[in-house]
Design goal:
Elements: H1 17-31, H2 35-46, H3 51-74, H4 83-111, E1 117-118, E2 121-122, H5 126-156
Antiparallel strand pairs: 1-2
């Protein structure tokens, strides 16, 4: 005997957005991997220490962030709320972070040259300033993205994040 029209079974149909949210959560978990090495590398440059390693770490971080953009493009997120804006914010954040990393790496290369360091402090250069600008853009985009993500995370019981974790 079939159930009367309008009656729902105790097991509701699965939410098609949930697996998309879980996939995006896994990608976001990877996005914080290079943060500590980036902070350490920029501090090393400022102190004129380990410049080749700092530049190398920053270039590796930029590569990882560009890979996050590529992986995001491959994820289906069309069932998530504000998916267009969320994807755009994450893409902007990671591209700006990658650009900042590359600028800071170039700064390390510059200060490794003659007169790049004075009394243990790196000289400011246009590369450093460009890195600072891109870092600011990345921070703003991450703030936008995290607001949208946390609403999704709350709904599906996934990890909520703050902007510094993207």
């Amino acid at each position: 005997m079939s159930s009367p029209a309008g009656e729902t079974s105790p097991q509701a149909a699965p939410d098609p957005a949930e697996p998309q949210a879980e996939s995006l959560d896994a990608l976001l978990a990877d996005s914080n991997d290079s943060r500590a090495s980036v902070i350490s590398a920029v501090q090393s440059i400022g102190a004129c220490k380990n410049l080749p390693k700092a530049a190398s770490d920053l270039r590796a971080a930029a590569k990882q962030r560009n890979e996050l953009v590529t992986r995001l493009r491959g994820l289906a997120v069309d069932k998530l709320p504000n998916h267009t804006e969320l994807s755009a914010s994450l893409t902007s954040a990671w591209k700006a972070s990658a650009a900042a990393d590359n600028h800071y790496a170039a700064w390390a290369d510059q200060v490794a040259g003659k007169k790049g360091c004075k009394k243990g402090h790196a000289q400011s250069t246009p590369q450093q300033q460009a890195g600072n600008r891109e870092s600011g853009k990345a921070s703003q985009a991450k703030k936008e993205a995290v607001g949208m993500w946390n609403a999704i995370a709350k709904r599906y019981g996934l990890t909520e994040r703050d902007a510094t974790q993207l």
